[in-house]
């Protein structure tokens, strides 16, 4: 490969993307040849049909073989637990909708295999694009990844593998598949940036688990960055700096050293409990989407799973999972997490996106539409199957069931009626379960916060979903970059809502947790402690840092700052106050070079 440095890039050119995997990498770029294969559709004669169908099946077989090879090549323990991603890709490859729809198109429409595949993939993409939930929507990238592989194999185009990179580099690519990421040799690939992708894509999840800094979603990186460009990437803030000046270089070298030092130091906190200096103990738990993420949560010191997003089980498949299949999945998580508790959140999706047998109309306003528990209460048969599976799992470990997006008492009562029905069925069938299973709700709508006192009488625990609570309280779409500046966790309205929820929970004597992203930001730890949260559940890598902070705080300090906090009129004032308070206590985190 010829190395050419674009001299027209001015020093310290700044690009901002999505910080998908924390850490700092400094080095020269390597452009990965990821020319997208464009499928060209053409009509074929009836004599050509058999050959096109045959070519399609050969491409499927070759893709399968390649994925099996990636799997066989993974030995790194951190990656073994992520092999489910490749398994997911293998499942997609074997998906009847993908293969039989394509073959049917070749046969019925008499078009070539490439064209037929393109049409089938477009249909899949449309389904995924209409999904409102960010995590699930990004599973589209798995379909894209399999689709690209199939297409390349169909037209016989090979692409450069990450394993061919011979010297240390920061990879720049339009997109990287999870399979690419898994094959990365950390001693060579010190970081990567891509045009597409988001924080919850599998590529991002893998990068975090491998400890490779990554900035995704830069949109135009491949057009702008030449091979060999000296580059700094900061995967924490999502910053990329091209042609850094000597001064910027020194600044980031210091940041990198400080980051690496703190990461090593944090390892020591994994085994310790999250107990404050005045003996107040919080439960720090992990948020997971899949059983395979549980070992990572354990390795980060999670004392249970505070949010299991069960919707993942319903994905990548034409029909929803059976009761037995769900039971196996729940038992798997429980067994891995034992003796700690696992909170299973019931299905949190909207509409007909995953359940083709149910055909609901498109909604003008999906965030306020038939989503989460509203969907479950409408599709009661589906809901009952899930409740039965959760109940049956409760015979095998500490399961808690949690209902998402509750907006009023009638809704939780309706859920409990169904739960009781499911229990009665199991009793009649002599199937064991824990009759005293803990029942909780997510508090993520303003109405739920306002009537937290009424809701607290109905349940055993609350878990605050700040991702949604903030969006609904402040009327700010959590995925809309144009109003992102209004998405403020420290907004006085949010702080008041959190206080109402905690006070109501305490008065009723029930546990109050938080499982939104706000729980993972150590800047908020002092306030959350003061408000009286019993549990903080977060993405696993966030746990050691929050634990370290909590262990050096007193709950009384948290309570003492509340008066001050509630005296401020804007989120900025609260943030400035908190930054000073936290920097005074933890200069290495809040006042030093690490943001
Ligand atoms: C939340 O809304 O804060 C939450 C944890 O749920 P999700 O991000 O899955 O909507
Ligand atoms: Mg939510």
TrEMBL record:
Phosphotransferase system enzyme I N-terminal domain sequence ranges: 17-139
Catalytic activity: L-histidyl-[protein] + phosphoenolpyruvate = N(pros)-phospho-L-histidyl-[protein] + pyruvate
Cellular compartments annotated: Cytoplasm
Biological process terms in GO annotation: phosphoenolpyruvate-dependent sugar phosphotransferase system
InterPro entries: PEP-util_enz_mobile_dom (IPR008279), PEP-utilizing_PTS_enzyme (IPR050499), PEP_util_AS (IPR018274), PEP_util_C (IPR000121), Phosphohistidine_dom_sf (IPR036637), PTS_EI (IPR024692), PTS_EI-like (IPR006318), PTS_EIN (IPR008731)
All copies of domain PEP-utilising enzyme mobile, residue ranges: 167-238
Stretches assigned to the PEP-utilising enzyme C-terminal domain: 268-553
Binding site for Mg(2+): 444, 468
Signal peptide per UniProt: none
EC number: 2.7.3.9
Keywords: Cytoplasm, Kinase, Magnesium, Metal-binding, Phosphotransferase system, Pyruvate, Sugar transport, Transferase, Transport
Annotated Gene3D superfamilies: Phosphoenolpyruvate-binding domains (3.20.20.60), Phosphohistidine domain (3.50.30.10), PtsI, HPr-binding domain (1.10.274.10)
Database matches in Pfam families: PEP-utilisers_N, PEP-utilizers, PEP-utilizers_C
Positions annotated to bind phosphoenolpyruvate: 309, 345, 467-468, 478
One example GO MF annotation: kinase activity
Cellular component GO terms, alphabetical: cytoplasm
Matches recorded under PANTHER family: PHOSPHOENOLPYRUVATE-PROTEIN PHOSPHOTRANSFERASE
Role played: General (non sugar-specific) component of the phosphoenolpyruvate-dependent sugar phosphotransferase system (sugar PTS). This major carbohydrate active-transport system catalyzes the phosphorylation of incoming sugar substrates concomitantly with their translocation across the cell membrane. Enzyme I transfers the phosphoryl group from phosphoenolpyruvate (PEP) to the phosphoryl carrier protein (HPr).
Family as reported in the entry's similarity comment: Belongs to the PEP-utilizing enzyme family.
Annotated protein name in UniProt: Phosphoenolpyruvate-protein phosphotransferase
Organism: Desulfuromonas soudanensis
Upper taxonomic lineage: Bacteria, Pseudomonadati, Thermodesulfobacteriota, Desulfuromonadia, Desulfuromonadales
